[in-house]
Amino acid sequence: xxxxxxxxxxxxxxxxxxxxxxxxxxxxxxxxxxxxxxxxxxxxxxxxxxxxxxxxxxxxxxxxxxxxxxxxxxxxxxxxxxxxxxxxxxxxxxxxxxxxxxxxxxxxxxxxxxxxxxxxxxxxxxxxxxxxxxxxxxxxxxxxxxxxxxxxxxxxxxxxxxxxxxxxxxxxxxxxxxxxxxxxxxxxxxxxxxxxxxxxxxxxxxxxxxxxxxxxxxxxxxxxxxxxxxxxxxxxxxxxxxxxxxxxxxxxxxxxxxxxxxxxxxxxxxxxxxxxxxxxxxxxxxxxxxxxxxxxxxxxxxxxxx
Amino acid sequence: xxxxxxxxxxxxxxxxxxxxxxxxxxxxxxxxxxxxxxxxxxxxxxxxxxxxxxxxxxxxxxxxxxxxxxxxxxxxxxxxxxxxxxxxxxxxxxxxxxxxxxxxxxxxxxxxxxxxxxxxxxxxxxxxxxxxxxxxxxxxxxxxxxxxxxxxxxxxxxxxxxxxxxxxxxxxxxxxxxxxxxxxxxxxxxxxxxxxxxxxxxxxxxxxxxxxxxxxxxxxxxxxxxxxxxxxxxxxxxxxxxxxxxxxxxxxxxxxxxxxxxxxxxxxxxxxxxxxxxxxxxxxxxxxxxxxxxxxxxxxxxxxxxxxx
Lengths: 306, 309
Known about the structure:
Chain B: The active site is at 169 (nucleophile). Chain B: It is an enzyme of class 3 (hydrolase). Chain B: One of its GO terms (molecular function) is beta-aspartyl-peptidase activity. Chain B: Keywords: Autocatalytic cleavage, Hydrolase, Protease. Chain A has one domain (4-305): Glutamine Phosphoribosylpyrophosphate, subunit 1, domain 1. Chain A is 34% helix and 27% strand. Chain A is built from nine helices and 14 strands. Chain A has helices spanning 16-38, 43-56, 100-110, 118-127, 135-138, 141-151, 221-226, 229-238, 243-258, and strands at 4-12, 76-82, 88-94, 115-117, 168-173, 179-185, 195-196, 206-209, 213-219, 262-267, 273-277, 281-288, 291-297, 302-305. Chain A has a nine-stranded mixed sheet with strand order 4-3-2-6-5-1-12-13-14. Chain A has a four-stranded antiparallel sheet with strand order 8-9-10-11. Chain A is globular. Chain B has a single domain, classed as 4-Layer Sandwich (Glutamine Phosphoribosylpyrophosphate, subunit 1, domain 1). Chain B has ten helices and 14 strands. In chain B, a hairpin with a 5-residue loop joins strand 5 and strand 6. In chain B, helix 1 (16-38) packs antiparallel against helix 2 (43-55). The radius of gyration of chain B is 17 Å and the shape is globular. The two termini of chain B are 21 Å apart. Strand 4 of chain A pairs antiparallel with strand 7 (197-198) of chain B.
């Protein structure tokens, strides 16, 4: 059953013309992460690599391709967590770095802190020699178009979040049985400056514990936070639920209690995995036992050899 | 339902010189929160008032009395949560405002977000008319001296120093007469923290959590360790499964000590009114009012009682 990696490209509602391309990137990321794992790489290396690939891909709302805040700027959040030691690293509202997920990992490995925010995160990036990239290079025409459209006072606030898939993330178990998670996002479109969502919050955007499993979440950030979605799923798994049952139960609770939709990818230390969502769609891909699984709509599970 | 309020002034090695003012501070905060509850105010109002009282008291590292980061600046974190709807507001790394807990409440009530950070949090504060204060108005003489004295020491000394002085968050939980619970937490973080460091306090499920179905918690202690175990949510998961507040907190703090070698403390209240204040650090100033009795303590297993006049 080991190793295994499960990747998502965000839960939400995307137009048909963009649906097809959202499969491609998650499949590539799952393949790359799986090859790291198969050659003995760690779960942490695998999830960071998968998420960095999705950050570099302009189709997804993370890194290049991130949505814009109300001022038309890019501010990003990211989190990594290592299930062996519970070591974690996060950045929030960080600007002008190509791969926030790698910066989050540096926070974990090079500081005695867990989360750095805003200008402090940029200062840290400079001291680590992480190159500053021009804001323009991160902004796609599509993101700018959506931002402009949403500035219209007649925009329906719920409608305005559709048309762009959310956060990206990955969970993995390596050959030694270590689990890890990574999540990265540009947040929600036309958000206030400095808005921090669920992604960089431990237990909300992700959680990893070798004793239970790993989760990466996506969806409506504010409601994910209110139920600490990732930690909630792992509490259910601690009580003996499978990743699938635990995801469904927690997503149903989030919908009932705070009217929020979202999706999750989950693994347990034995390699049992799931990719579930309460939103209309979530692009996801998983690699295990030389098979690549992927899907976008409910009930889909296409397979092909890795 | 008999209302309950429990507050803490931070779990750490409170030095003797600060012992008396810390206990006086938490008692005053508890009384302030209790007045709100007795007048029929909600749990959310009570925890905000209690935390504001401590933010205004220079004895505590929150609001007035905050510590300085490596650049000699004040950056504050706060979280407030309401257990009926799970509505939450938080600010992280906000600079130079007197009452971060009230700004967190404004994020909850006036925006459709849960957390604002850094400059964005300050811009929001300005937009709703919250004044920005000069750093010297928030930082006491003693903190400036300590900061000057130790800033040239090498990392090793800083780490040692941190271990001694790191843990000085304030927080409160309450249960009101309608059965609603709430939690609030506020901090200046740890001295010599990196610019932009966010600890557990503003992070939902770590620094605090409130849910009418299971209870409310506010945590304090080594922030990075609290985050790793999502301490507030962990405590409530035990209470959800029927553990008494005291046992849930003790069990979770023990787990945090074993798994990530972190010390800390928490105050918690269940929807039944069962409450606790526990810590694994040397000391934690805490106080509670329940049924007209003021309870308080500072050292392990200390529990004094006073009848409210």
